[in-house]
Amino acid sequence: MNKWAELLIGIVLLAVIIIVGWASSAYSWTIFGKNLNFLQSAWILLKGGVFWFFALVAVLLIILGINDIRE
């Protein structure tokens, strides 16, 4: 694919994601009584990702420490 087409499609998709996230949090989007606040869902996913990243780094450091003690 053309590099300029890829860049344009990426910018358009990013703009659409930002607009949908903002609109879903600014207005009340509900389907069958469920709230569709995509911005809140993205924030929760980001917090979970950060938590698991630090948890896995801690496990990695423990394994490396045990390995160093063993040698």
Q: Could you name the ranges where pLDDT drops below 50 across 5 or more consecutive residues?
A: none
Give the integer mean of the pLDDT values: 87
**Helix residue percentage:** over 70%
| Topology as a string of helices (H) and strands (E) | HEEH
Q: Give the CA-CA distance, first to last residue.
A: 51 Å
Radius of gyration (CA) equals 20 Å
Largest beta sheet, briefly?
A: 2 strands, antiparallel
Features:
mainly alpha, single chain, 2 strands, 71 residues, flat, two-stranded antiparallel sheet
Textual characterization of the structure:
The chain is mainly alpha-helical and 71 residues long. It is built from 2 helices and 2 strands, in the order H-E-E-H. It has a two-stranded antiparallel ribbon. The N and C termini lie far apart (51 Å).
Compact summary:
This protein is mostly helical and 71 residues long. Helix content is 80%, strand content 6%.
Compile the SSE list and pairings.
Blueprint: H1 3-26, E1 30-31, E2 34-35, H2 38-70
Antiparallel strand pairs: 1-2
